[in-house]
């Protein structure tokens, strides 16, 4: 384990997955808060929207692996496309959040989740192809564990920023009054 932790590649993969898992979890969790506080959606409606994100993520994770192996030269290239797709989805959601109807947002949230879905598994496959075999067990175990910590750290930081800074939900609430 100590040998694998000396590898810079393991830390790059671990940090990438920490940011990914944190972003995925933060968006899925804070989506309900955003929709209720800013868009004034009912809790039930907001939770349906969050469910569409997680359904898209699950669908993407189950199906886009086949697309990756068939249409991409390698998993790293596929991951770059999926990250760009996800970032575009988040940006489109942000741009349309105040302009569009909730039906369009449902589709955007689902499609964003679809792009987010395969990032974790394709990152692990890429790590297995790039890392030396001696790092596979301990290294990938650490990458997954460290990556999973993002699911706790990033949503907490997002909440802290949203609750205490002028960049958070308070600024959006002031703009909408």
Plain-language structure description:
By secondary structure, the chain is mostly helical. The protein has one domain: Up-down Bundle (Growth Hormone, Chain: A), CATH 1.20.1250. The chain is 84% helix and 0% strand. It contains eight helices and no strands. It has helices at 2-5, 8-37, 43-71, 75-96, 102-116, 119-130, 136-164, 169-176. The longest helix has 30 residues, at 8-37. The radius of gyration is 18 Å and the shape is globular. Residues 172-177 have low confidence and may be disordered.
CATH topology: Growth Hormone, Chain: A
Structurally, how many domains make up the residues? Answer: 1
How big is the Rg? 18 Å
- The H/E string reads HHHHHHHH
Percent strand:
under 5%
Major sheet summary line: none
CATH superfamily: MFS general substrate transporter like domains
What's the CATH class, please? Mainly Alpha
Average pLDDT over all residues: 86
- In DSSP terms (H or I, runs of 4 or more residues), the helix count works out at 8
Distance between the termini: 54 Å
Structural class: mainly alpha
